[in-house]
C-alpha cells in the first residue's frame, strides 16, 4: 500500500511539475506577444505623430500660400484697369445693338477645350439664338457643367486667375526689365506695361516690325508675326509686334529679350541710314 501511495504521489508531483512548466512557458509566450504588441503600438503612435506633424506643416504651408495669393490679389486689384462697359454706353447713346463682345476660357482652363460666351443687346442675342438652333443640336453641356463645378462662381474664376498671374509675373518682369534697360530713351521703340492679359505690345519705328521679326528668327528667337493684331495682319505702319512671354521660363525670356532688343537696334539703324 505504501509503495502504491508513493507511486501515486510521485506521479502527481510529475504531472503538477509539467503543468507548472507549461504554465510558465505559456506565460513567457504571452508576455512576448504582449511586448511585441506594445512595440507595434508604439511604432503606430510614432507614425501617427509623424503624419500629424507633416499634416500640420502642410496646413501651415497652405496658409502661407493662401495668404500670399490674397496679398497678390489685393495688389492686382489695386492696379487693375477699369474698362468701360461699352454695351451700356452704347445703350445710353441710343445704339444698343452696335456691339458684340466675345469671350472664352481657352487661356483660363483648357486650351482649345474651354467654353465661349457672347454679350450683346437683348435684340442681338435673340437673333443669334435663332441662328444657333439651326447651326447646332446642342452645346457641350458636360463641358459647361465641368467649368461651373470647378470655378463655382466669379470669385472662383478670379482666384484661378490669381494663380495665372503668379506664374506669369516673373516672365513679364524679366522681359520689361530688358526693354527698360536697353531701349528707354533711345526713341526707337515704345511698349506697354500691361496690368493683365498675356501679351506686351511693342511699337518699333515705322517700317521696322517685319525686319525685327525676321532678324530674331535668324538668331533663333521666334516671335508672333509682325502685324498679327491687325485685320488680315496688315499693319499700315509696319511697326507693331506682339510679345508673348507666357510659354518660356523667366530665364529664357530674359535671353530672348536680349536678342530682341539687339534686333530692334539693328533694324532701327538700318532704317535711319536708309532714310538719311
Describe the overall structure:
The chain has 276 residues and is mainly α. It contains 7 helices and 5 strands. It has helices at residues 2-79, 86-92, 122-135, 141-151, 154-183, 209-218, 250-275, and strands at residues 101-104, 116-119, 189-191, 200-204, 240-243. The strands form 2 sheets. It has a 3-stranded antiparallel sheet, with helices on one face. Strands 1-2 form a two-stranded antiparallel sheet. Helix 6 (209-218) packs across helix 7 (250-275). The termini are far apart.
**Which series of helices and strands comes N to C?**
HHEEHHHEEHEH
Distance between the termini: 146 Å
Biggest beta sheet attributes: 3 strands, antiparallel
Q: State which percent range the strand residues make up.
A: 5-15%
Helix content: 55-70%
Low-confidence stretches at least 5 residues in length (pLDDT < 50)?
Answer: none
- The tally of helices reads 7
Q: Describe the global form.
A: elongated
Number of strands: 5
Secondary-structure blueprint of this entry?
Blueprint: H1 2-79, H2 86-92, E1 101-104, E2 116-119, H3 122-135, H4 141-151, H5 154-183, E3 189-191, E4 200-204, H6 209-218, E5 240-243, H7 250-275
Antiparallel strand pairs: 1-2, 3-4, 4-5
Task: Please give a handful of descriptors for the protein shown.
mainly alpha, three-stranded antiparallel β-sheet, two-stranded antiparallel sheet, about 5% strand, single chain, about 280 residues
